[in-house]
C-alpha cells in the first residue's frame, strides 16, 4: 500500500468510470468481468465503450453505459480520420461525466486514446490504467503500419496514469515498465464461474484430442502449432487436433495444414462462443498456448477449471499460474520443434491426471469472484 494518501474507499459514494474501447469478440468477456467487479464496489459505475458486442456486457442496476460506433477501416487516410473523430467524441464524454466520476479505470484501448485520458487528467481525476496485454508487442507481431503512432500514444498515457495495474510483477521487466515501477500495482479482472467451467468428462474418458483455442493472429503463435502438427501426428497417429478461433491468419493456417498434409486430422470450427467453451474444453486432453506475448489468458484458466492440462510458453503472467509438471506444462519457446517435443512430453506424463486435478484446484483457490473483488478493493484503497 502507498502511505500518506486519502482513501477513495472512505467515500461512501465512490463513483467510477470505466473506459474499454472498442469491444471485440476477444475482449468482451474480460470487459464484462471488470464491469461486474467494479460495479459491486462502487455506488455508481459509468462505462464508455463501443456499440459492437455490447449485448455481451450484462446490465447491472448501478451501471450506466455510453457507447459510440466503431468501424474498422483499411484505408490509411480514413483510418486516421476515424481515429481522431473517436478521440474527440470519447474525450467529450469524459468531460460530460466530470461531476459523476471520482476516478477512471482505463482498460482495453485505454492506452491508445490520448484525449480521453488527458481530459480526465486535466479535470483532476485519478487514473488507473489496467494493462491486459503488451500493445507494443502486439503491434510489432502484426506489422502494424501505425506502430510509431501507437508507441507515442502509449508513452503519453503511461505518464498520464496515476497508477498502472499489471497482472504480474514479472511483466514489469518483460514489458519494459521499470521506469513506471513507482506507480505499478498488481491485480486482474479474472474470475470464473466454477459451476459453468467444471469437469464434466474426466481426463481418462476423453478422446485423443489436443488443440488450440483463441485468436488466429501472429502474437498467439498458432501458426507454429500448425507447423508442428506433422511431427506430433507422426508420433501419435491416433490424435485429432482442434484449432478453434478466427482471425487474420485463418486462411494462412488452412493453407499450411493443406501443404503439410494434415488437414484430415484437424477440426476448424471457427470462433467458439463463450457458452460453448466448457463443452469443447471437456473434450481436450491438452490445450496448447504457444504465444509470443500474453497478459493472463482467460482460456488458460477456463481450461484448468475444466480439468484440461495446459502447455504454454512462459510469457506474461502464465508462469504465476502454471508450474511445470505441477499445475500444467511450460515449453521453452514456441518453435515447431519445441511444441512437438513438449506435446509428446505432456501426453506421455504419468502424472497427467493429477496435474489436471491440481490445476483445477489452483484456479478454484485463486480466481473466485470474491477473491478478485477483495483485490480490487485494495487497489482502490491505494488511490488518493
From TrEMBL:
Originating species: Methanoculleus formosensis
Name of this chain's protein: Glycosyltransferase family 4 protein
GO molecular function: glycosyltransferase activity
PANTHER family assigned: GLYCOSYLTRANSFERASE (PTHR12526), GLYCOSYLTRANSFERASE EPSF-RELATED (PTHR12526:SF637)
Domain Glycosyl transferase family: 201-354
